[in-house]
Amino acid sequence: MISLRILVCGLLLAAAGVGAQTAPPANATGSAAQDTRDLKVVRPDAKTVPPAIPRSYALVIGIASYKNLPAAAQLQYPNRDAEDVYTALISPEGGQFPAENVHKLINEKATVANIRHELEEWLPAVTKDDDRVLIYYAGHGFVSGGKAYLAPFDVDIHNIAATAYPMDTLGLDIGGKIKGKWKVLITDACHSGAITPEADRTQVNQTLLSLQKSLFSLTASRDREQSFESANWGGGHGIFTYYVIKGIEGEADTNGDGIVSADELAEYVHTNVRLATSAQQNPTSERGSFDPNMVLAYNPSHVKGANLPPPQYGNLIIESNMDNTEVWVDGKSQGVVNKGTPLRLPGIEPGAHTIKGVHMGYEPDGPRDEQVYPGQDTTVTVRILIARNRNHAAVELFDKGIEQYNKGELTAYKKAAEYFKQALAIDAKYSQAALYLGRVENALFEDQKALAAFRVAIDVDPDYTEARSSYAAALLDAGDLDEAVRQLNLVTRRDPGSGMAWYLMSQAYARKGDYVDGKTAAEEAVKLNPKNAEAHFWLAECQRQLKQPVEAETEYSNYLTLSNFDSGLSGKMNYYMAGYLFGAGSKKRAAQTDIWRELRGQANLGMCDCEWMQKKFDSAIGYCQKALTYIPKDMFVNYRLGVIYSEKFNQANQLGLLAAAKSHFSLVIAANPDANEADRARKYIKNIDQVMAQQ
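RE: above sequence
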């Protein structure tokens, strides 16, 4: 059933350009008149030459639940809209944004302070003139004192000017502070008639359209029109944003060159939203000047050749005989369908599409081809019927493998691997055997074999979230951080309660240097599983890098308490707790196999660093010395000790402190002469020698 958002939504899509031009007049449908429409660039066939996409940054904001608004003013899907926009942006068959360059503010994270920080500090600091920048916002928009505002999570309707974000300030941010040659602003700024007078809707939409006259703009609806949202669109979306997402994923590519341009996205969204709502909602656009070469997204699988006529899209309606059935269309997960509640997928290109329904422990229905016809609904019934019956011999081999696997020793792992391989030879669809084979190969440092085994498990059971999480852990070990983030994003969308996935996500972000998102993921992991020691560790690492030493010390302490056991008692190369790989994604490539000692050492180094930040030198020295009992000769520990002893000398003027500092700096150089820390250590030693010679 379609429900109305109690709001009118405006969306602006903007791209920086050179020189403003007057927008052509609109016809009765709200689109530009055909005979005055700007000419489109006819692109050559792009099969052999993908577009050059510049370095890209994005900020994604979605607010459904507001802290201070009444129940009637809460929204349903903006948070889900934002999550799916994020997924489309980081996809290699979509926006192609590096995951670490896309920041998310969802619900309670989207405070006015956080929004201001991202728009006025982060983006201006990281962007350069040749970059691509995209900002997405979904939530309320208000008018107060004659000015239009975006409404953060903590907006106070009695003091909007102080607690909301002015749209004219947003325009100044995009036009001046944030650098880039391609700038895109997608703002589903929903305005509630239940809170502000209906007459103000016009001002909200017009403010969005006129933030920057030289930018390409698109609004979700005409003035005074209502904007729809419904569970029928992709399992729950605002209809407008649903088609924005589909367009970014490649459906808007009407000329078949694989590229989604601003014009193509606007045309696709306008056409489909209007059809889906029987013309009750009409996205409109105004064309200023913008770079016609701007690439919003690129999907090479959509390349068909130049100058193909635009298709009229159809709809897929997916039914299932079983709850919690995941639906895959053309190799991409489209969501979950339950018995009696069809999943509606509008905006599907006409032609044959591969449909598959999967349910863990059952044979999949499909893949099979289904035809989608222009302008029509195509109903597909997915039937999950056959429970996977295991071959008895394969099950016996799997059980023997698990017995060896649980011993955790080198020879036992090798035996376990052979049992799992034999089980798979008998039953190629034994996804659990493939999962555990991958875990064993990962423990044996056979990275490529491990990755291959995990892919087998996922190919057999695409909704096997545990296999995807273990695959992501192996990707972390192999150094493929971007693909690990993509896999974990799928898991957390499918199973938000997966503490393992959130913990691995925190590690991936931390190792990429994205400590803000790493902290968010780690906090979620800790909330879901407070006894997961490593979740506390990575939360502490992120807090330390964000210069939050007091908070970080608490989490390091939690980690040290939870991991306070004798690693030798288990006899394992890696530690499996509650069925999960302890140390997953943290494996060292050297002879180091005791991950427990490695992380204990790093945690003590973290405590040392936090105490040093607070100028507590004596306690800092104690933690660093403790760290060396776990990780002897570690370069970073010795460097920090050298710095601390040097600073302590500046307080106490005792030559013995300089001698200790020089000793630790010398160990830094011996550990890695080419490291940046070694260069700094040499400078410290030179200064120390001069001071000691003088005294």
